[in-house]
Protein backbone atom coordinates (compact mmCIF):
# COMPACT_ATOMS: atom_id res chain seq x y z
CA UNK A 1 0.00 0.00 0.00
CA UNK A 2 1.26 3.46 -0.93
CA UNK A 3 -0.13 6.68 0.46
CA UNK A 4 1.18 10.20 0.49
CA UNK A 5 -0.12 13.61 1.43
CA UNK A 6 0.47 16.99 -0.14
CA UNK A 7 0.02 20.59 0.83
CA UNK A 8 -1.02 22.44 -2.30
CA UNK A 9 -0.89 26.22 -2.56
CA UNK A 10 -3.08 27.70 -5.27
CA UNK A 11 -3.17 31.14 -6.84
CA UNK A 12 -6.02 32.66 -4.75
CA UNK A 13 -8.19 33.78 -7.68
CA UNK A 14 -8.09 30.25 -9.14
CA UNK A 15 -8.61 28.14 -6.00
CA UNK A 16 -11.92 26.66 -7.17
CA UNK A 17 -10.43 25.58 -10.52
CA UNK A 18 -7.38 24.09 -8.82
CA UNK A 19 -9.56 22.19 -6.34
CA UNK A 20 -11.68 20.76 -9.17
CA UNK A 21 -8.61 19.71 -11.18
CA UNK A 22 -6.92 18.12 -8.15
CA UNK A 23 -10.02 16.08 -7.36
CA UNK A 24 -9.95 14.64 -10.90
CA UNK A 25 -6.56 13.00 -10.20
CA UNK A 26 -6.97 9.29 -9.41
CA UNK A 27 -6.71 8.35 -5.73
CA UNK A 28 -7.00 11.91 -4.40
CA UNK A 29 -9.01 12.75 -1.30
CA UNK A 30 -9.36 16.33 -0.08
CA UNK A 31 -9.08 16.70 3.71
CA UNK A 32 -8.78 20.43 4.35
CA UNK A 33 -8.99 23.71 2.51
CA UNK A 34 -7.72 26.81 4.29
CA UNK A 35 -6.43 30.19 3.11
CA UNK A 36 -5.55 29.09 -0.42
CA UNK A 37 -4.12 25.74 0.64
CA UNK A 38 -5.45 22.27 0.03
CA UNK A 39 -4.38 19.28 2.09
CA UNK A 40 -4.87 16.03 0.20
CA UNK A 41 -3.93 12.40 0.38
CA UNK A 42 -3.30 10.16 -2.60
CA UNK A 43 -3.72 6.42 -2.10
CA UNK A 44 -2.67 3.43 -4.25
CA UNK A 45 -3.14 3.91 -7.95
CA UNK A 46 -2.14 0.62 -9.57
CA UNK A 47 0.44 1.02 -12.31
CA UNK A 48 1.17 4.68 -11.54
CA UNK A 49 4.21 5.86 -9.59
CA UNK A 50 3.75 8.34 -6.77
CA UNK A 51 6.26 10.67 -8.41
CA UNK A 52 4.12 10.74 -11.58
CA UNK A 53 1.03 11.68 -9.57
CA UNK A 54 2.95 14.42 -7.78
CA UNK A 55 4.15 15.79 -11.14
CA UNK A 56 0.60 15.64 -12.52
CA UNK A 57 -0.65 17.73 -9.59
CA UNK A 58 2.26 20.19 -9.83
CA UNK A 59 1.45 20.72 -13.52
CA UNK A 60 -2.16 21.78 -12.86
CA UNK A 61 -2.58 25.40 -13.97
CA UNK A 62 -2.45 27.92 -11.11
CA UNK A 63 -0.84 25.52 -8.61
CA UNK A 64 1.82 27.67 -6.95
CA UNK A 65 3.37 24.70 -5.12
CA UNK A 66 2.68 21.10 -4.17
CA UNK A 67 4.78 20.00 -1.22
CA UNK A 68 5.10 16.40 -0.10
CA UNK A 69 4.16 16.27 3.58
CA UNK A 70 4.07 12.51 4.21
CA UNK A 71 4.68 9.26 2.37
CA UNK A 72 4.12 5.68 3.47
CA UNK A 73 4.84 2.48 1.59
CA UNK A 74 4.59 -0.84 3.40
CA UNK A 75 5.72 -2.84 0.33
CA UNK A 76 9.24 -1.48 0.64
CA UNK A 77 9.48 -2.67 4.24
CA UNK A 78 8.49 -6.25 3.46
CA UNK A 79 10.94 -6.47 0.55
CA UNK A 80 13.89 -4.92 2.34
CA UNK A 81 17.01 -7.12 2.23
CA UNK A 82 17.79 -6.04 5.80
CA UNK A 83 14.59 -7.61 7.05
CA UNK A 84 15.25 -10.91 5.32
CA UNK A 85 18.97 -11.30 5.97
CA UNK A 86 20.19 -14.11 8.20
CA UNK A 87 21.83 -11.68 10.63
CA UNK A 88 18.65 -9.71 11.18
CA UNK A 89 16.67 -12.95 11.66
CA UNK A 90 19.21 -14.07 14.30
CA UNK A 91 18.84 -10.73 16.13
CA UNK A 92 15.07 -11.06 16.13
CA UNK A 93 15.12 -14.56 17.67
Brief account:
This protein has a four-stranded antiparallel beta sheet. The model has no long low-confidence stretch (mean pLDDT 85). It has helices spanning 15-23, 50-58, 74-78, 81-84, 86-92, and strands spanning 2-10, 28-34, 37-43, 63-73.
Description:
With 93 residues, the chain is of the alpha+beta class. Helix content is 37%, strand content 37%. Strands 2-3-1-4 form a four-stranded antiparallel sheet.
Describe the secondary structure blueprint for this structure.
Blueprint: E1 2-10, H1 15-23, E2 28-34, E3 37-43, H2 50-58, E4 63-73, H3 74-78, H4 81-84, H5 86-92
Question: Can you write the helix and strand succession as a string?
Answer: EHEEHEHHH
Provide the β-strand percentage band: 35-45%
What is the oligomer described by this structure?
A: single chain
Helix content: 25-40%
Mean pLDDT: 85
What is the number of helices?
Answer: 5
Q: Give the overall shape, derived from the CA principal axes.
A: globular
The poorly predicted ranges are none
Strand order of the largest sheet: 2-3-1-4
Structural class: alpha+beta
**Cα distance, first to last residue?**
27 Å
Rounded Rg: 17 Å
Largest sheet: 4 strands, antiparallel
